[in-house]
């Protein structure tokens, strides 16, 4: 019974677990943002490329 009481009161490692959970949450947020912004950025550069392709060129 003493082992169980000591085990329940032992908080060593809790901080490391909390930091791990925070790092995982930040990673998920970064992945979501990069995925969303990456798609929009690709569309924007595609639009710019198409518009530049339509522009007349000057021949020497």
TrEMBL record:
<keyword id="KW-0812">Transmembrane</keyword>
<keyword id="KW-0472">Membrane</keyword>
<protein>
    <submittedName>
        <fullName>Components of type IV pilus, pilin subunit</fullName>
    </submittedName>
</protein>
<dbReference type="InterPro" id="IPR007047">
    <property type="entry name" value="Flp_Fap"/>
</dbReference>
<feature type="transmembrane region" description="Helical">
    <location>
        <begin position="20"/>
        <end position="38"/>
    </location>
</feature>
<keyword id="KW-1133">Transmembrane helix</keyword>
<dbReference type="Pfam" id="PF04964">
    <property type="entry name" value="Flp_Fap"/>
</dbReference>
């Amino acid at each position: 019974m003493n082992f169980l009481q000591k085990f329940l009161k032992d908080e060593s490692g809790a901080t490391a677990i909390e930091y791990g959970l925070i790092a995982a949450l930040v990673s998920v947020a970064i992945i979501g943002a990069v995925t969303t912004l990456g798609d929009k950025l690709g569309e924007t550069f595609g639009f710019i490329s198409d518009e530049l392709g339509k522009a007349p060129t000057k021949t020497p």
